[in-house]
Amino acid sequence: MYIEELKEEEGEVVNMEEKFCDDTCEGPLAVSDTKRALVGAGARALFYPTLLYNVVRNKIQTDFRWWDRVDEFILLGAVPFPADVPRLKALGVAGVVTLNESYETLVSTSLYLDHGINHLVIPTRDYLFAPSDGDIDRAIEFIHSKYFSPSS
Fold first, then answer.
1. Which of 90, 120, 124 is nearest to 107 (CA)?
2. What top-level branch of life does the organism fall under (predicted)?
3. Highest mean pLDDT: which of 30-44, 47-61, 103-117?
4. Domain segments of the chain: what residues?
5. What's the whole-model pTM score?
């Protein structure tokens, strides 16, 4: 996250220098260990009920899609099941970026690799958390290496 320094007495921006704040930052943007643990426990408790809800919803609602094509090269969607891996391969998927915690990941890296699909795992907690800038950079490099390299 980028923060602009403000002059307190006037509330105006006086320094446009950007400061980076990630999961380790201190101050008002820092997330306490207690809050992190509570959100993690809540996310873990809600994972399977919400997964079941979304599977049922996917079967009932015709306009609910598990994945959407963002562009020619990228699909964005919910967590794949092991049975989805051959379908992903048939759709031309060459790499999968997983932004889940380990208990939410339903397909092992070895299963992806068995189908010729590269896999990048970036552990990301749901709800109040997001991948760091470094993790986003790793994901972008991974995607570019699969689709925009001279050999592809």
1. 120
2. Eukaryota
3. 103-117
4. 25-147
5. 0.67
Dihedral of the alpha carbons of 120, 95, 147, 116, in degrees to the nearest 10: 120
pLDDT tens-digit readout, 24-35: 555 555 567 787
Residue 56 to residue 66: CA distance in whole angstroms:
11
Kindly state which CATH superfamily the domain 25-147 is placed in.
Protein tyrosine phosphatase superfamily (3.90.190.10)
Q: Which of 38, 73, 52 is nearest to 152 (CA)?
A: 73
CA 70, 63, 96, 39 dihedral sign is positive
Question: Within its chain, how far is the Cα of 2 from the centroid?
Answer: 20
Residue 143 token pair? 């995607």
Tokens of 2: 């980028």
